[in-house]
Amino acid sequence: MSRHTEAIAVIGDNPAMRAATTHESDTPAAAFAKRMLPWLVAVAFFMQALDTTILNTAIPAIAQALDVAPLSMKAVMASYTLSLAVFIPVSGWMADRFGTRRVFAAAIGVFTLASLLCGFAASIHWLVAFRVVQGAGGAMMLPVGRLTMVRSFAKSELVRAMSFVAIPGLIGPMLGPVAGGLIIRYFHWSMIFFLNVPIGLVGLYLVYRHLPDFRKQKLHRLDFTGFVLFGAGVALLSYVLEIFGEHFLSTREIVALLALAFALLAGYHFHSVRMKFPLLHLALFRTRTFLASVAGGFVTRLGVGGIPFLLPLLYQVGIGMTPVESGLLMMPQALAAMSLKPFAPRLLTRLGYRGVLIANTLGLGIVILAFATVSTTTPTWLIVAQAFCFGVFTSMQYTSMNTLAYADVSAEDTSAASTISSTVQQLSISFGVAFASLLAALFVPDRFASGPAQMIRGIHLALLVLGVLTLVSAAVFTRLRAGDGAAVSQHKADLPALRPTE
Question: Cα separation of 365 and 371, whole Å?
Answer without folding.
Answer: 10
